[in-house]
Amino acid sequence: MLEQEIIVAGRTLCYRVNFNRRRKTRSLIRILPDGTVLVDVPAAVSLLQVRRWVAEQAEWLLRRRDEIEAGAGFVRPLAYRDGEAHLFLGEHYRLSLLPRRPAGRAQGIVAQSLCLHADSTDPGHVRQRLWRWYRGQGQTLFRQRLAELSAGVPWVARPPELKLRKMRLRWGSCNERGVVTLNTHLIKAPRDCIDYVILHELCHLRELNHSRRFYRLMDAVLPEWRGIKQRLDERADFIANE
Questions:
Q1: For the segment 94-127, what is each residue's pLDDT rounded down to a tens digit?
Q2: Are 156 and 205 in contact (CB under 8 A)?
Q3: CA distance 27 to 34
Q4: Which of 27, 162, 193, 219 is deepest in the core (most CB within 10 A)?
Q5: Do both 110 and 177 map to the same domain?
Q6: Contact 123, 80 (CB under 8 A)
Q7: How far is it, in rounded angstroms, from Cα 178 to Cα 230?
């Protein structure tokens, strides 16, 4: 991912460019929780084309960024310090940093705290420890739900191979080999949102597209999926915040 910037009316607009091989023609531009602009474009698009596109949208992007930062819903990057609120399965918990492996002190959710063993309070170290915990929780829960939901989908003979990866623009993906990849950030989302994403990818095992046939499959396995998707999208910046 390339870091770029342009100057507009004396103001600096930073943006990141992601050349996405899976995109054919459509490009996407969005503002991340830290105010950075992310441009997701097909691999064939040149950096000059991206710069021109960002320049055309610059005034709107700066105005929208100002609105977000001024609003109560602006999501500031996490500081990874003791007492800070962090999401897990749709709920906020206060981070409680514990000395490494203290006697009798469990790691994980305890009451309204997310207890984490850490050798240091350095934010980089805490972030690494927290993400190791998130990934472990995701591996366990996602595999369990993938197996249980697969059993109720007629065209899935056995649970597909699962991979976890942090992604900026997707909650999940499914490739032609039938491997399902879920966004590690999903472990911070409510359980029904996790199930929605898993079922979405299971439908891709039969329809590797977003055709009418695909959406008919979604309606069959999860009739209320549209409302769940809307809630997930509305909370995307909070769930994917780092």
A1: 999 988 665 556 789 998 899 999 888 999 999 9
A2: yes
A3: 21
A4: 193
A5: yes
A6: yes
A7: 26
Question: Which residue bears the tokens 């063993």?
Answer: 117
Has residue 79 been placed in a domain?
Answer: no
User: Directed axis angle between helix 191-204 and helix 225-234, to 10°?
Assistant: 120
Q: What distance in Å separates the CA atoms of residue 217 and residue 222, rounded to the nearest whole number?
A: 8
Indicate the pTM of the whole model.
Answer: 0.72
Q: Are residues 165 and 222 in the same domain?
A: yes
CATH number at residue 152: 3.30.2010.10
What does the alpha-carbon distance between residue 30 and residue 27 come to, in Å, rounded to a whole number?
10
Question: What range defines the domain where residue 32 resides?
Answer: 2-70
Strand partners, 182: 164, 172
Strand order in the sheet with 28-31: 2-8, 11-20, 37-42, 28-31
Give the residue ranges of DSSP H helices in the chain: 47-70, 123-150, 191-204, 212-221, 225-234, 236-239
pLDDT in tens, 17-67: 989 888 877 888 887 666 678 898 998 899 999 999 999 888 888 887 777
Token pair, residue 150, equals 């697969």
